[in-house]
Amino acid sequence: MAPVPISPLKIGHIDDVQELRKSKSKIPERFLRDITERPTLVTPESSSSLSDIPIIDFSKLSKGNKDELVSELVRLLTACEEWGFFQVINHGIELSLLDKMEKVAKEFFMLPFAEKQKYPMAPGTVQGYGQAFVFSEDQKLDWCNMFALGVEPKFMRNPKLWPTKPENFSETVEAYSSEVRKLCQSLLKYIGMTLGLKGDVLNEMFGVAVQAVRMNYYPPCSRPDLVLGLSPHSDGSALTVLQERKGSSIGLQILKDNRWVSVQPIPNALVINIGDTIEVLTNGKYKSVEHRAVTHKHKDRLSIVTFYAPSYEIELGPMPELVDENNTCKFRRYNHGEYSKHYVTNKLQGKKTLEFAKIQTNNSN
Ligand SMILES: COC(=O)C(/C=C/C1=C(C)CCCC1(C)C)=C/O[C@H]1C=C(C)C(=O)O1
Ligand SMILES: O=C(O)CCC(=O)C(=O)O
Ligand SMILES: [Fe+2]
């Protein structure tokens, strides 16, 4: 067997949260958040903190008549400009495929710990089973087990990390990712239309897009008021597509007007969010919105998240069409591969990662 490379990172022991839950032991200190970071939870009394993010009917974009297309594009523009998050209904992906994806993801997390450990996420990397974005011993941990895989282009795949169990896992991820890829390409085309861009500029600019899938499993937690399921962050992708397993607890929260509000997923819909790349390309017209996940005392939660981003070779910056004297250039040009490296080598910390590309001005926000 090849020697395991020794990581220079000192990240300490990372407990597996499903195993912690099984052993009914006290929540380790590393999961307990400082008072300023603790979540606000949705209770029946505080349902006003539930947010109705915009709903986009994809069939009106793809198959609607001219009036339907125009009115849905206006809704899409508002969703991107004011929310950075929306839910897509009638997305055209077979519901049986979504169910299959949920099934294999849940079955993977339910495997014995020893089986899942055959696909370890090495410290400082983001693929495999474990906890990503941990870089030091004193960093707080998330109440989440992750399993992440690079999917496209094929060079992103590490075959040793694609599990043999459950049966059909790999072919399901393949089929699912191919459908989600088409949806992302269509959404990018319509987003381009909301920006008044001629032709399919965004897809053409992206080259062979990078695509990764991450399954996040949040077991119930005895003290959901003291831990976070996933630390606040914006996604480094262009678009992110999130599917939630039916019957999951509410968990996704977005930062809207400086308040954390919970997203109530619609069954069979997909939640889409704008990532850092679109914020840069649109010179901040469409912003990547900070989000996090919270846990539940009695219910578990599973989310399946696809990150869709430009090829690593692509140089990008604000599109000239979106820069003028009233909207001066907010980001420098950079290589997406470099941004990706920067993103995965820093802890999740709100929108801090995007500072990589920001042109600092006295009044920049
Ligand atoms: C919270 O965001 C992420 O975890 C994330 C990670 C994506 C990746 C994998 C799970 C495995 C393969 C590498 C890759 C970095 C794509 C977000 O993805 C974004 C961030 C950047 C940058 C990007 O290109 O996609
Ligand atoms: O599980 C969720 O709701 C959030 C997941 C997420 O934001 C991510 O994986 O980047
Ligand atoms: Fe995210």
Automatic annotation (TrEMBL):
Pfam families: 2OG-FeII_Oxy, DIOX_N. GO terms for molecular function: L-ascorbic acid binding; metal ion binding; oxidoreductase activity. Coiled coil: none annotated. PROSITE patterns: FE2OG_OXY. Keywords: Iron, Metal-binding, Oxidoreductase, Vitamin C. The keyword ATP-binding does not apply. It comes from the Eukaryota. Residues 209-310 form the Fe2OG dioxygenase domain. Belongs to the iron/ascorbate-dependent oxidoreductase family. This is Protein SRG1. It comes from Morus notabilis.
